[in-house]
Each structure stands twice: as C-alpha cells, then as structure tokens.
Amino acid sequence: MWIILGVLFSFSALALEPFERLTNVKILRVLPDNIVMLNRGIEDGILRNDHAKLSSDTVGHAARAICLKVTSEVSYWRVYRVPNAEAFSLDYFYTITGLADREIPIPIADLRNQRHSIDEPVKKVSPGPDPFLVKSDLPQRLTERDLIKTVGPERRKLFIEKTLNKDQLERDLRDYRISLYASPFTRQSINEGESLRYGLRGGNIASKYRLQTQFEQQQTKLKDPVTKESISTRSTTGQAQFVIHHLTSSISSLSLVNYNSQRFSEFATPKHHWQVGPIGFTWHLYESDTWEYMDLSYIPLYDMRETDVVAADGTESVKETNGLRHGVRLAFKTRINERVAFENLLWVRPFQDLASWELKGDDLNLSNDMKLIFNLSQNLFFDYNFVYQKDKLWKTLSDLPESNTINSLNVRYDFDF
C-alpha cells in the first residue's frame, strides 16, 4: 500500500508548475480538433489538465494549450490559441512553459471538466505464437480499492468519498474570479423607468466544485403607475449557487439561494423575497466546440415572500406568502465566433401551497434572461441584455402588470481575486 501511495504522490508532485520549462519538445502528430501529440509525458512532469505555452527560439511564441491526456512518454494537448500559424510546425523543436490556471479563458476552462476520447491510428499487433491467445483486460494501475468489488453500503461510502473531497474543495475554491459590471442604460416596461444598474459576479474556475455569487443594485427614476408622479426607487437582488460537477457522466448537483427586494412605488413588492433550494440536479444535455453547454435543471425551492399591501380604506399591512416552488431551468450558451457569444437562461417556477398541496399553474414566477456578449479585450466585455419577467403577484397584490421587460447595455470587467 505504501508503495502505491508513494507512486501516486510522486506523480502529483510532477505536475507542470507555472513558469517551469521543458526543452527539446517535438510535435509527433497533429490530430483532429486541434489536438497535438508531444514527445513528453508523465516521466517529464506533465499531467492531465496542465496549462502551458509552446515557444521556439527560431520563431518565438507558437501556441497555448491544455493537456487532455498523458501517458508515461507522450501527451496530448488541445491547442486553443495560435498567434502565428507559421510558427507551428512538425519541423521545429519547442520549449514548454507552464502557465497558471487563472490564465485559462473561461470557455476553454470547461475542457478540464470533460473526458476526451482521442482517435489514434490502430497499430497492427502480431498474434504471436498462439493466434487464439486472449488479451488480458486488467486496468493500467491498481489500488487496494480496485481489488475489492464494492457493493451495498461500501459502494455508497465510496461514492460519498469521491463526491465530498475536502482537499479538492479547497483547491477548487483557491482561484476566484470577480466580474464588475454597470449598465449606464436600463429601461423596463412596467413603469416606464430608466435605471442605472450595477453589481458584481464571482465564480471559481474548477474541475469539480464551483461556487458562483452575484449581487446587484438598481436605481431608477420612473413614473409611478398609480399616481403618475416621478419618483426614485431602488431594487436589490442577490444569488449564491453551489455546484458539484459530474456526480455521473451527465448529472451534476445544484444548490441555490435567491434574494429579491423591489419597490415600484412607495411600497415594496416584494419587501423581502427568498428562494432557498438545498439540493437539485442538472442534466448536461449537449456540448461541443461551439456550444459551451446546454443544461436542464430541477430544484425544489422554499419560497418566502413579504409584500406591502394597501387596503381599500388606506390601511397598510404586510402580506406573507410561503410555499414551495418547483424550479425548472433551461440554460445554454453558444459561441458565434471568437469574440461574440449568445447566452440564454429560462426559469419557470410554479407555486405549490404547502397547506393544500395545490399546484398553481398560473403562478409561474417566470423569467427569461437573454444576453449577447461581445469580448472587447481579454477581460473587458460589452453585453446587450433583454429580460422578460412574469409574476402573477404583481397584479394580485399590487395592481401592477403581470409582465415586465428590461432592456439594458452592460459594461463588464473580469479580474482574478
């Protein structure tokens, strides 16, 4: 056992560190999907998911790539940036320089979460002295757990150990990326309001555990839909989302907390609105080189809402509404070209009364967030955002229209924390 652990730890210590250099690197083959095979492997300190650049003394910087697969002697790299096509050739010797994970562009970082099957030419093997010899089907590397077929409670325990890995969690949360954004122009239909919106988003780039947060405030000058007077209001939204990727090959977990507070007049509707979902699941429907993801999620949300209400006689009160919402989310993102992407996020959350267990099909708390993203530079983005919202309680509690549309232009800047 100690020998096996020693081998595993020695492999982990060999990972290509930032700014570490390997010389006399040769491209052995060029495969489909921008994959190249290099003459360096585990024995040279390369592991899967290493991030590096290739350069040559003759032609300079040639490419940036991520390691998809590695054996003892060779490695396979997905090339995602080639600044000079003439510098990329089978005839040159290169130097590999390790790069930090935070320098991986967000779309490319998703490659680290995937298992890649690399098509290689099939080599003909001589049948040997016995043409009917059956080839053994043992795994390449054995541990003690591989020698025991886990069933029942042991199998569940092993699954939990793989899913809840404290060391992996600490590593994944180490690098955190913050996005600051502001919308100098925002206009929504429900109150003919023009707004200034600003906020921040945060998220880590990780292979297994991903935490995403968002906080946003919006200041609005508008016409009160009841009195037609011009007033100023403020709304606040927040979200925290935690994901454990790939519980299976196509399913990830989803935990979610939403907060919303909004005033359309001098009264709040809602005053406070919480949606808490301890656990749900995401099905990864499709992904490719151009489609970064297409996911379908379901999560039950405990819904707690407080709204200021004015009765016919002018008395004021706070109405509390608690219940269960069945959150269904369809999300996808596709790249139109290298600098332009399209993203859409649809939420449908029908309400279920916990007292009667009646599912109200007309109270959907629906929202659709459509975004066209322009990458102006490496960290600077310009977005056009169109949001459609439908909330029955706006009408029943506050005598406002049930639906609202928001058009906004956003400027966003990303940096690592």
| Number of contiguous helices | 5
- Summarize the helix and strand pattern as letters: HEEEEEEHHHEEEEEEEEEEEEEHE
How is the CATH topology of the largest domain named? Answer: Lipocalin
- What would you call the structural class? mainly beta
The end-to-end span amounts to 39 Å
Walk me through the structure.
There is one protein chain. This protein has 417 residues and is mainly β. The protein has helices spanning 2-13, 106-109, 152-163, 166-172, 392-398, and strands at 21-31, 35-38, 51-56, 60-70, 75-81, 93-98, 176-188, 193-204, 209-223, 230-244, 251-261, 272-286, 291-310, 316-335, 340-348, 351-352, 359-360, 366-375, 380-390, 403-416. A twelve-stranded antiparallel beta barrel has the order 7-8-9-10-11-12-13-14-15-18-19-20. It has a six-stranded antiparallel beta barrel with strand order 1-2-5-4-3-6. The model is unreliable at 1-13 and 122-151 (pLDDT under 50).
Summarize the SSE layout with pairings.
Elements: H1 2-13, E1 21-31, E2 35-38, E3 51-56, E4 60-70, E5 75-81, E6 93-98, H2 106-109, H3 152-163, H4 166-172, E7 176-188, E8 193-204, E9 209-223, E10 230-244, E11 251-261, E12 272-286, E13 291-310, E14 316-335, E15 340-348, E16 351-352, E17 359-360, E18 366-375, E19 380-390, H5 392-398, E20 403-416
Antiparallel strand pairs: 1-2, 1-6, 2-5, 3-4, 3-6, 4-5, 7-8, 7-20, 8-9, 9-10, 10-11, 11-12, 12-13, 13-14, 14-15, 14-16, 15-18, 16-17, 18-19, 19-20
In short:
This protein is mainly beta and 417 residues long. The protein is built from five helices and 20 strands.
